[in-house]
Specification:
7 strands, 5-stranded parallel beta sheet, binds zinc ion, two-stranded antiparallel ribbon, Rossmann fold, 228 residues, single chain, alpha/beta
Length: 228
């Protein structure tokens, strides 16, 4: 079996999404060397970690965390850049799986019924062809053994003129509005909302508005990375 796979890699070599080294058959998207040097934050069980604090006084969450720190031009920055701008969906799935392995060990983060990727702006989705958060969510779902809910949480872009009318005045810095198509499907569920990179938290905050209105929902947030 491994002979066949090694033989295959002679003709269809795969490369590390960070350092471009040839991958061995047992390596997926990221080589062992880069894997060992991932800047893991390991803060999932700290209830006052940087991502939790970001949302204090803004939205009510069960827990929030992030997997990696993202210094400019570092390994995680290169990997996420590949995921977002070079069509490398496999690296998103791989990082999602690695993240989920840590969450399985976490007391605060492990109880999840459904994973919700933050929807991509429709224009960006059209250009990119895929939502990078869906890739992360797929990798996580496989490890956590839970479903990914796609297309239920929905994003629409409002024009500046509509925003000025005050329809979403509270979100004047986020002109995208989120809503849930079938809230009954999420009622009573422990939801894990997934984003690729959290900076100001405004997108997550906007997503939380319709989700928090659903009966019995417990909402947690997990981001692949936060800027260093
Ligand atoms: Zn590498």
């Amino acid at each position: 079996m491994s002979y066949v796979t090694d033989f295959g890699t002679l003709f269809f070599p795969k490369y590390c999404s960070s350092c471009n080294r040839n991958l061995m058959h047992y390596e997926k998207a990221v080589c062992m060397h880069c894997l060992a040097h991932l800047p893991r934050l390991q803060m999932h069980d700290e209830c006052d970690n940087a991502v939790d604090k970001l949302f204090w006084g803004r939205i009510e969450l069960e827990a929030a965390t992030a997997f990696l720190s993202m210094p400019r031009n570092g390994i995680s920055h290169r990997l996420i850049h590949r995921l977002k701008y070079h069509g490398d969906q496999e690296v998103g799935e791989r990082l999602g799986a690695l993240f989920a392995l840590e969450l399985l060990e976490s007391k605060r983060m492990k109880g999840v019924d459904v994973i919700l990727p933050v929807p991509l702006h429709p224009k960006k989705l059209h250009v990119r062809g895929y939502n990078q958060c869906d890739c992360i969510a797929r990798g996580m779902a496989e490890i956590l053994g839970v479903e990914v809910s796609l297309n239920n949480l929905t994003r629409t872009h409002f024009t500046a003129s509509q925003t000025r009318r005050g329809r979403i005045s509270r979100w004047s810095n986020v002109k995208d509005v989120f809503w849930v198509r079938e809230p009954e499907k999420l009622a009573g569920k422990r939801i894990l909302l997934i984003d690729d990179v959290i900076t100001t938290g405004a997108t997550i905050e906007a997503c939380a508005v319709p989700l928090r209105k659903i009966q019995g929902v417990q909402l947690s947030v997990a981001a692949l990375a936060v800027p260093a």
